[in-house]
Amino acid sequence: MAASAVTAKECLQSAETCLALAHKTKELDTRAALLEIAYEFRVEAKRLERDERKLMMRAASDGTQKHGNLPIMKTT
């Protein structure tokens, strides 16, 4: 069975769900747990977004090197 990857968007959606549930509950322990889980989902979303940016930058630089293109430099 193949592992499925969770996206940053899915993590943010889960965080929002936890926040909504936390605001609805009157149980303080439950509210605290949901807020903590929401926080963890947001931290993971930020990590996933950062990793995605790194991969995109790496792919862009690999493409430049493979094709022998030089980066465009600004002239003043």
Please summarize what this structure is:
The chain is an all-alpha fold and 76 residues long.
Q: What is the number of domains?
A: 1
Beta-strand fraction estimate: under 5%
Q: What is the number of beta strands?
A: 0
For the record, give the distance between the C-alpha atoms at the N and C termini, rounded to a whole number.
Answer: 56 Å
Largest sheet descriptor? none
Query: What Rg, in angstroms, do the CA atoms define?
Result: 20 Å
Give the number of helices. Answer: 2
- Low-pLDDT stretches are none
| Dominant shape | rod-shaped
Reading the helices and strands in chain order gives: HH
Helix percent band:
over 70%
Mean pLDDT, rounded to whole units?
Answer: 85
Structural class: mainly alpha
Task: Please write out the topology.
Layout: H1 8-24, H2 28-67
Helix pairs in contact: 1-2
Description:
- The chain is mainly alpha-helical and 76 residues long.
- The chain has one domain (8-64).
- Helices cover 75% and strands 0% of the residues.
- The longest helix has 40 residues, at 28-67.
- The protein is rod-shaped.
- The model has no long low-confidence stretch (mean pLDDT 85).
